[in-house]
Amino acid sequence: MVALRSPVTVPPHRVGARRVAAALALLGAVSACACSAQSPGAVNYQPRTRELTVTTVPMLVKEGRTVYPFLATDFASGGVLEGKEVYAFSPSTLTVVEGDTVHFTFVNPEDDEHWFFLPDCTEEEDKESFVLPDCAVRLPGQTRTHATYVARHAGIYPFMCTVVRHVPMMQGQLVVLSPAAVAGRTGRGE
Ligand SMILES: [Cu+2]
């Protein structure tokens, strides 16, 4: 596991191509095996493709001031939300199994832009197997954005939006279970 980056120090425009390569320290390799170093239970798990839809949801944002009058104070100078707005990824915890291919559909229904950023994507390896254009995905307003990952290593991987106004509230975690942990029971009654 590589060290986490501070989201505040990683503005979206600097999330460049070098990290494309990087990403697959944790996610990557479409190729076969990820299986070689796994526990005995792994042999019973057949990696699969999972379709996940994640929506960016406004929670306590400036547009909400007419509904929640207290927000005027919160957003004002010295208020608890000065310089911030609260958005959420829904769902914010995503669970897959090592070896799975994950097809993300990100739905951003509002007009503000967001990013889906995995800070652990920092290793310069597996360039050839990287299946995303970058480990930070831009989510323009009122669009659907698709991205594909292959979950390469079990672990818990935080993700976040890098828009400074949305840090640190807009975040979540991608949980990649080891095949042994699920013992073949992964949502289809198996
Ligand atoms: Cu955001």
Terminal-residue CA separation: 31 Å
Q: Which CATH C-level class is it? A: Mainly Beta
As a percent range, the share of helical residues equals under 10%
Level-2 CATH architecture: Sandwich
> Which parts are unreliable, with pLDDT below 50 for 5 consecutive residues or more?
1-36, 125-131
The CATH superfamily title? Cupredoxins -  blue copper proteins
Overall SS class? mainly beta
Tally the structural domains.
Answer: 1
Q: Identify every distinct bound molecule in the structure, by name, code or SMILES.
A: copper (II) ion
The number of distinct helices, counting runs of at least 4 residues, comes to 3
Using DSSP, what is the number of strands? 9
> What amount of the residues lies in strands?
25-35%
Spatial shape: elongated
Radius of gyration: 18 Å
Order of helices and strands: HEHEEEEEEEEH
What name is given to the CATH topology? Answer: Immunoglobulin-like
Mean pLDDT across every amino acid position: 76
The major beta sheet can be summarized as: 4 strands, mixed
Strand order of the largest sheet: 2-1-4-7
